[in-house]
């Protein structure tokens, strides 16, 4: 098969294209000159207008802001104090909840000691108490209760509590019946006639409930509460739902005494204001999660707002200084700023033109290098093969000059020439922007047309499974049938070339909102991040030498973008690649 010389000649249409580009370049240069002249006039006007306008535009809002700040400060002062107190009460509440959780965990750990027994000895109970006090000296004693509520093991300051029956105690009944595996009681007197509270933990052993309990000293708990309130200028206390003090400063009240304020149970946290002896007092509260107690935090209003008044005075002084400084700075710096901006704009234009010119030169050089490399390969094959034919016709080399052998060599020459022609055609397709011929197309039918027949048999022989996952409800969209067929053909070929040995190619079509997405996914060798950044560059290929020109994806991208679509690529080395082509759905 012969190749026509017309395929390698410069056509008149190409000369027209070059002339048009020269004319466009001249028009762009003239436009740049006009833009430069207009820019100078613009900056002259800007110097005059900005000097007056900027001062007025800045001063008026700034003055309005200053007045609004003074007015709004008084209004928001009380809200700020409330928010601070509420945040403080919530923070302390969380700390107390965490303290109680840790004490529960300390007691629960006793069940999991290495030598735990359902009949603990006195020495073992003493060891339990020692371990608890090592963690926190608030623990007073420790006891172990059997399923009947009898305290069969005890260690502490009240030895007569051993073998006591707690089955009628409220905390014991609640613990057995509630879902939670632990219970924290209110402050009560109990058998010892002294204020204390109990933390009891339930453990199911062989289907029976056993309880480990310990009492804690409220005075030690108060010291903990006082430590987390230190430096906050507040008074903190804990009360139960009935308003009885569970933890309180001895100077303010006594344990189990009545509080003068009881927070609402249906609100988790908040702040209120009360008057007492002519003084306004802010009270913040927050209900604990571990036990039905409320943390109540008190702070006199004059203390809560003292820092804010000082802040307002300092901020007023600072705002006045800033006001005067900025006004003077605007007046002095305006002229210099405009001058520098004009110079920077002119230099930016010059650099942009230089960069654009250098970029064009670099692109031309890179493109020329790729063309030379790709064209030289088939030319080298043609030269070498023609030399072989000459040697075959030379009797001195004693080669077989039969027509069959010569035809084989000519076929090699034809193959190389066709490869050169293919590169030339793809390069022209890459460089030219041909207007697409839009017709209604169904992408499912186009994909089936590509895969039917020879292509599907070729993949079957190569042990590559084709999986079709089509959306049957895809609407027809306006595409150039031949061009989009070329795109899909290139992507499917690339997917097959990326698979070494058995593999899968999954072709998926789906509609998403106003777009159609076509995904071609393979289980091939994948690509590195560096390769992903270069796959759409002309003459870049991941295939072996002689198996690809490196123009297929460049041409495909041009076609897809000319049709208003996009190509998205995802790939991982060793895990395959996925190419997704998306097109907007246009009305026919």
From TrEMBL:
The chain crosses the membrane at residues 50-69, 314-333. It catalyses: ATP + protein L-histidine = ADP + protein N-phospho-L-histidine. Keywords: Kinase, Membrane, Phosphoprotein, Transferase, Transmembrane, Transmembrane helix. The keyword Cell wall biogenesis/degradation does not apply. InterPro entries: HATPase_C_sf, HATPase_dom, His_kinase_dom, HisK_dim/P_dom, HisK_dim/P_sf, Sig_transdc_His_kin-like_C. It holds the Pfam family HisKA. Residues 370-587 form the Histidine kinase domain. GO terms for molecular function: phosphorelay sensor kinase activity. Coiled coil: none annotated. Its EC number is 2.7.13.3. This is histidine kinase. The lineage of its organism: Bacteria, Pseudomonadati, Thermodesulfobacteriota, Desulfobacteria, Desulfobacterales.
């Amino acid at each position: 098969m012969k190749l026509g010389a017309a395929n390698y000649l410069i056509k008149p249409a190409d000369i027209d294209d070059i002339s048009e580009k020269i004319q466009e370049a001249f028009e762009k240069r003239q436009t740049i000159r006009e833009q430069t002249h207009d820019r100078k006039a613009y900056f002259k006007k800007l110097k005059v207008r900005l000097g007056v306008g900027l001062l007025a535009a800045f001063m008026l809002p700034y003055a309005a802001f200053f007045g609004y700040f003074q007015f709004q400060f008084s209004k928001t002062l009380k809200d700020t104090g409330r928010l601070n107190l509420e945040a403080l009460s919530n923070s302390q509440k969380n700390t107390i909840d965490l303290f109680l959780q840790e004490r529960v965990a300390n007691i629960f750990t006793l069940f999991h000691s290495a030598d735990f027994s359902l009949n603990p000895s006195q020495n073992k109970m003493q060891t339990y108490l020692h371990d608890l006090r090592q963690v926190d000296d608030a623990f007073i004693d420790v006891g172990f209760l059997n399923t009947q509520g009898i305290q069969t093991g005890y260690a502490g300051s009240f030895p007569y509590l051993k073998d006591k029956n707690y089955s009628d105690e409220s905390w014991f009944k609640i613990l057995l019946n509630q879902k939670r595996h632990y219970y924290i009681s209110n402050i009560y007197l109990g058998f010892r006639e002294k204020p204390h509270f109990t933390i009891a933990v339930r453990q199911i052993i062989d289907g029976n409930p056993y309880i480990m309990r310990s009492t804690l000293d409220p005075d030690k708990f108060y010291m903990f509460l006082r430590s987390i309130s230190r430096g906050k200028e507040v008074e903190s206390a804990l009360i139960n739902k009935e308003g009885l003090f569970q933890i309180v400063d001895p100077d303010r009240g006594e344990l189990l005494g009545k509080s003068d304020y009881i927070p609402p149970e249906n609100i988790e946290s908040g702040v209120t204001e009360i008057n007492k002896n002519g003084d306004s007092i802010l009270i913040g509260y927050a209900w604990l999660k571990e036990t039905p107690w409320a943390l109540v935090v008190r702070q006199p209003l004059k203390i809560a707002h003292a820092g804010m008044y000082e802040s307002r005075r300092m901020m007023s002084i600072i705002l006045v200084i800033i006001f005067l400084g900025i006004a003077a700075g605007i007046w002095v710096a305006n002229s210099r700023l405009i001058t520098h901006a004009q110079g920077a704009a002119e230099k930016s234009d010059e650099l942009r033109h230089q960069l654009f010119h250098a970029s064009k030169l670099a692109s031309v050089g890179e493109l020329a290098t790729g063309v030379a490399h790709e064209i030289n390969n088939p030319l080298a094959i043609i030269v070498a093969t023609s030399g072989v034919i000459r040697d075959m016709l030379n009797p001195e080399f004693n080669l077989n000059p039969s027509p069959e052998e010569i035809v084989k060599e000519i076929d090699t020459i034809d193959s190389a020439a066709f490869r050169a022609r293919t590169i030339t055609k793809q390069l022209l397709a890459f460089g030219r922007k041909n207007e697409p011929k839009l017709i209604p197309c169904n992408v499912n039918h186009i994909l089936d047309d590509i895969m039917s027949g020879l292509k599907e048999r070729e993949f079957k022989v190569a042990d590559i499974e084709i999986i079709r996952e089509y959306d049957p409800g895809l609407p027809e969209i306006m595409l150039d049938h031949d061009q989009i067929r070329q795109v899909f053909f290139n992507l499917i070929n690339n997917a097959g070339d990326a698979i070494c040995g058995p593999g899968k190619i999954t072709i998926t079509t789906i509609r998403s909102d106003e777009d159609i997405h076509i995904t071609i996914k393979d289980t091939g060798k994948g690509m590195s991040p560096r390769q992903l950044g270069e796959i759409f560059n002309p003459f870049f290929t991941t295939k072996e030498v002689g198996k690809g020109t490196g123009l297929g994806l460049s041409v495909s991208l041009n076609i897809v973008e000319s049709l208003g679509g996009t190509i998205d690529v995802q790939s991982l080395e060793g895990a395959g690649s996925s190419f997704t082509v998306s097109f907007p759905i246009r009305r026919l």
